[in-house]
TrEMBL record:
Heterodimer of an alpha and a beta subunit. Pfam families: ETF, ETF_alpha. It is found in: Mitochondrion matrix. The keyword ATP-binding does not apply. InterPro entries: DHS-like_NAD/FAD-binding_dom, ETF_a/b_N, ETF_a/FixB, ETF_alpha_N, ETF_asu_C, ETF_asu_C_CS, Rossmann-like_a/b/a_fold. Residues 178-199 are annotated as: Disordered. This is Electron transfer flavoprotein subunit alpha. FAD binds at residues 226, 251-252, 265-269, 282-289, 303. SUPFAM superfamilies: Adenine nucleotide alpha hydrolases-like, DHS-like NAD/FAD-binding domain. Its cofactor is FAD. It comes from Owenia fusiformis. Binds 1 FAD per dimer.
Amino acid sequence: MLARQLINGVRSKNLCLSQRFQSTLVIAEHDNEKLTPVTLNTVTAANKIGGDVSLLVTGTNCAKVVEEASKISGVSKILLADNEAFKGFLPEAITPLVLSTQKQFSFSHILAGATAFGKGLLPRVAAKLDVSPVSDIIEVKTADTFVRTIYAGNAIQTVKSNDTVKVVSVRGTAFEAADTTGGSASTEDAPAPSDENTLSSFVGQELSKSDRPELTSAKAVISGGRGMKNGENFKMLYDLADKMNAAVGASRAAVDAGFVPNDMQVGQTGKIVAPDLYVAVGISGAIQHLAGMKDSKVIVAINKDPEAPIFQVADYGLVADLFKAIPEMDAAVSS
Ligand SMILES: Cc1cc2nc3c(=O)[nH]c(=O)nc-3n(C[C@H](O)[C@H](O)[C@H](O)COP(=O)(O)OP(=O)(O)OC[C@H]3O[C@@H](n4cnc5c(N)ncnc54)[C@H](O)[C@@H]3O)c2cc1C
């Protein structure tokens, strides 16, 4: 009994010691006005690793983001690089900054969200640091051991990294958002980038604007597939979504057919979502689509084919013609 207590005591002391030696840099994702929600999930993952958590904010005229970030609970320091050079958030420009920051502070971990931004940045950083990145983690076991999905979510892998710096991307839907109040992080300037970005420059961007909630953080998502037949028919889903304060997603088949833009794609090669409610309309349920939505809390499927694989993951299934079912749903929600 005493021996076990001693062993447990030594173990927890070692855990505390190992946590004390961790220091994590989280690379903030934002649009110069507001933090992207995945940053808050990434901060939670960083706090699970233990030790100090610093946030690197790079952008152009991003004072509002710094103000918001300084209140996040669990962040002790903000490193700020507010400069024209970071216009467009090009990974080619941000990588040298992360490298110089790493050189100065020797973080044990560098984290970002597993989003288009993180996927563009972290492999570059890892290659320059000569370490293997650990991508798209869904759990932190210890400071060096992480859980991630492979084979489009069909298998779960636990990986241990022996690299001195762990470069990790985080699946936002797998971690709660950190509290945006109660923090009091200090702000200091990040070191100058180790190199100038001469490879690429930001020319411009066309962003789709929507008043609907953002797909990856919406509480409810309605997605349409090839069964919608064309882009105009998506209006039915937009109308219903607006009444339910839901975001609208799509299968890859719907995107490839040109019904909707590709930032709406849910799945293995699209966005990963885990809302409270996911409604799949005219979507067959291919594994690549399921990889992006099967962690949703309640899944509703509407499909005219009773054999469609989507019904195997659905909590509620409606075998019906969507062109009849959606107007009926809309009327029911409106009344
Ligand atoms: C490497 C790779 C990556 C991929 N990544 C993704 C990804 O990220 N996301 C993704 O979605 N797919 C992805 N795919 C494609 C995936 O394999 C499927 O082809 C795709 O998901 C099918 O889309 P769908 O369900 O809309 O179309 P379909 O499989 O054609 O299904 C259409 C469904 O609509 C139903 N339907 C038709 N008319 C009606 C009606 N009037 N009323 C009700 N139901 C109706 C049909 O019964 C059918 O089940 C990927 C594929 C590969 C190889």
